[in-house]
Design brief:
Number of strands: 13
Number of domains: 3
Strand content: 15-25%
CATH architecture of the largest domain: 2-Layer Sandwich
Largest sheet: 6 strands, antiparallel
Helix content: 40-55%
Distance between the termini: 36 Å
CATH topology of the largest domain: Beta-Lactamase
Shape: rod-shaped
Number of helices: 9
Amino acid sequence: MTQTADRPRQTSGHRATPRSMRLVTESIGRDLETYSADNDLIVRQIRLLAINALIEAARAGETGKGFAVVANEVQRLAQGAADISERFQENVLDRIRLSRSMADALVEDMEGVRLIDLAQTLVQFIVRNLFERTADVRWWATDSALWSALEEPSPRAASHAAERLGVINRFYTVYLDLVMTDARGQVIASANPRYQRNLKDKNLSQEDWFKAARSCRSGEDYVVDSVRRSTLHDQRDVLVYATGIRVGGRSDAPLVGTLGVYFDWQSQGQAIVEKEANLPPAVAERTEVMLLDGANMVIASSRPERVYTHFALSNPQQAPRGSYHDANGAIVAFAKTLGYEDYDGLGWSAVIVQQSDSDEIIRAQLKLK
């Protein structure tokens, strides 16, 4: 049964890649050039022998005439071999040189394009996921349990709001917590029992997400904080989506509080770079997959020690996607988010840094000279 697959086929113990194909072509070209040079040398030697034979035949006089005929024929054959060698160089070797040049271009294009496409897929995957979060926070802010607890404050109402948030949190496991505050930033209710003690009586008025949520002009608006560690949640990495809670849950009513949903970035972001790339183990060992925010800060990486460092992406033309080789010879492919629906993607991008096998290693694996 014939099988087809997108992944490169295995050839002689090595993956069939543009780079290995280029090296095979180079090896064939070098061998043909060597054979052509050897043939030229043999033709020259035959010509020299034929000339010497004609000289000796002339010295022999009448008795050497028959040998002269043979010598002339040998010289004619040598000329024929020389003509064939010339046509071989003009046709075959020139085509081999052209194919080598094209192979070089393919290595640059195909290796880069393959990784660029993967980077685009990864960043779009997470952006589409996060688009749903923008709908979640605006929807939940209209829940009657929330705005009722803010319009008519009481311990019972606050407890009911916390229960309602807890139900949501149990069914939406991508969230670490959901936190409701009043208009002054005082925490009224939260979802995750693990962190409720930390949040009890806390005032979050200095949190960036709270300040931005208070500035939302209507219930249709929302804000997104930057990826950061939450001191209220055991220093876990979070991404907060927030909006205002309004009187009666109406989008055009006065604001009575805020809702911040803490997306569990530590789990979800790491899953994108470690699992969704789906690289074979041997390839993953020499590949780093990263997500960058709009300021090129690493917010997730298959090498976690890189998180919260700046990545010096070389993109002077501000291209939306592309690839290049860094100082270490690794391919760096990048793709910025295209956004999704009305979510602009915050200018995030995915970056893949892959160290290619050296030409020497590939030649050794393919037993090329």
